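Quick one, probably user error.
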């Protein structure tokens, strides 16, 4: 067997190392998707071609991540191992779910199927909160990049293979709020979520900073890694991994914060429309009552003068003002 060359741009498509579990999972998922699309189209339901292309692209990227260049160097470079785990956790599942496998499964199984029941469950609603995913990132980072797990993953290949599939599953749960509609929430609750999410933006950077600035080796990975002529020093390799973790953890928060901000705008508009509808109904009711007692046009017009500010008419705001008094 020839020695593994130093990583280079030219080797991105040339270096491969087959991971049988991930390859089998990709083939099985592709087969299910194709059969489901054929079944849905035979039933007369249109399934967009762009979703098929996106799903296929997600599988290709997943196969390359688990069987291609990253897998070839995963036992030689800690920063490559870090980049692979982050890609499987935060990028590949999002790309696959963008192809609509959940919507496709709901079309195939119907409202009584397991997919619809799961998406309506409390667990799915909890995981669908846009703040849950970013909050899990620092916790998972501690487990993945500190301690014995990296060493186990490369010392026992089966452990590493299973870990990759687990990360894909967890990443799919984290990506749920980015690919599905969230529950209807009040503008106050979504605004609070945005504030908490901004704090998480700082919190998520801590594991990467700790790994980047640590002055000693903090993982068992280096006890089992393959050493080559081009292998960097263990501490330098760990610091590169910390930089990767730091940057990716910060970048992954941005789409979640954008999602929460958009939800905040929609919730605020929805709440305002509900208040306007109540006020308009009350005004029309007053006009109707005034018209029953006095049919003169000027009497009906004068009822508009008795309108009060919206914050006194809205029941929620009125209760708050009373409590403050």
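Nope, works fine. Designed sequence:
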């Amino acid at each position: 067997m020839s020695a593994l060359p130093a990583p280079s741009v030219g080797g991105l498509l040339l270096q491969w190392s087959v991971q049988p579990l991930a390859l089998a999972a990709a083939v099985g998922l592709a087969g299910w998707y194709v059969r489901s699309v054929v079944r849905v189209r035979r039933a007369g339901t249109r399934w967009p071609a762009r979703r098929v292309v996106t799903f296929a692209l997600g599988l290709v990227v997943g196969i390359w991540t688990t069987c291609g260049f990253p897998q070839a160097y995963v036992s030689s470079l800690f920063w490559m191992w870090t980049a692979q785990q982050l890609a499987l956790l935060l990028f590949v599942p999002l790309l696959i779910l963008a192809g609509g496998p959940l919507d496709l499964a709901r079309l195939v199984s119907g409202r009584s199927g397991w997919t619809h029941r799961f998406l309506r469950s409390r667990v799915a609603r909890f995981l669908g909160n846009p703040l849950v995913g970013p909050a899990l990132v620092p916790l998972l980072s501690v487990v993945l990049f500190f301690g014995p797990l990296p060493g186990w993953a490369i010392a026992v290949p089966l452990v590493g293979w299973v870990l990759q599939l687990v990360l894909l599953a967890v990443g799919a749960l984290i990506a749920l709020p980015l690919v599905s509609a969230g529950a209807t929430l009040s503008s106050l609750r979504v605004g609070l979520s945005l504030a908490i999410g901004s704090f998480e933006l700082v919190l998520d950077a801590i594991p990467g900073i700790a790994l980047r600035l640590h002055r000693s080796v903090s993982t068992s990975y280096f006890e089992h890694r393959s050493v080559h002529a081009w292998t960097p020093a263990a501490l330098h390799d760990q610091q590169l991994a910390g930089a990767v973790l730091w940057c990716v953890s910060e970048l992954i928060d941005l789409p979640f914060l954008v999602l929460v901000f958009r939800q905040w705008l929609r919730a605020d508009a929805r709440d305002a429309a509900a208040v306007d509808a109540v006020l308009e109904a009350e005004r029309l009711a007053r006009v109707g009552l005034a018209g029953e007692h006095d049919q003169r046009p000027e009497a009906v017009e004068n009822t508009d003068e008795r309108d009060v500010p919206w914050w006194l008419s809205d029941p929620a705001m009125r209760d708050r003002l009373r409590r403050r008094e």
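The chain has two domains: 10-273, 274-324.
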